[in-house]
Write a structure and sequence with these properties.
Elements (H helix, E strand, L loop, with lengths): L1 H14 L3 H18 L9 H25 L2 H15 L8 H10 L5 H11 L6 H10 L2
Helix pairs in contact: 1-2, 2-3, 2-4, 3-4, 5-7, 6-7
Length: 139
């Protein structure tokens, strides 16, 4: 499972004295554990782990943007390393051109229909915000 690879990488980051990677990977593991003990009775899948990675990566990007605006270069560099550590476990996302091609191939190009299609077929492989933006621009 993907979470096992993340745990191994976290342990390796600790051995390598890489606090940025260790911090970000530990947060992902912590969120996985919270999901595991949420009481739903289901074991989280790799799809759930990818959702955690995507959400956490976006949070780190937003935090980094705030530090860029404040001119805190040291914090920006640290967050950049954390983002890279998380991104190593993310699947390659579809490009704008690939998303446009899929949208144009659909019979029903209404926003709800496009979003349902991408959620069912490309979850974790496409940035849903970008899908929404492109779907709106192609109408």
């Amino acid at each position: 499972m993907l979470i096992d690879d993340i745990k191994k990488a976290s342990l390796q980051a600790m051995k390598d004295h890489n606090p940025d990677a260790r911090t970000s990977l530990s947060m992902v593991i912590s969120r996985y554990q919270a999901l595991l003990t949420s009481g739903k009775g289901e074991t989280p899948t790799d799809k759930d782990v990818i959702a955690i990675l995507i959400k956490f990566s976006k949070e780190l990007e937003e935090e980094r943007a705030g530090y860029v605006a404040a001119g805190r270069e040291e914090s920006v560099a640290s967050l950049t390393r954390q983002i890279e550590a998380v991104a190593a476990f993310l699947p390659k996302l579809m490009s704008e051109e690939e998303i446009k091609a899929v949208i144009l191939s659909l019979e029903d190009r209404s926003i709800p229909s496009v979003m349902r299609y991408f959620k069912a077929n490309y979850e974790g492989k496409a940035d849903m915000g970008l899908v929404s933006k492109l779907a709106r621009s192609l109408q």
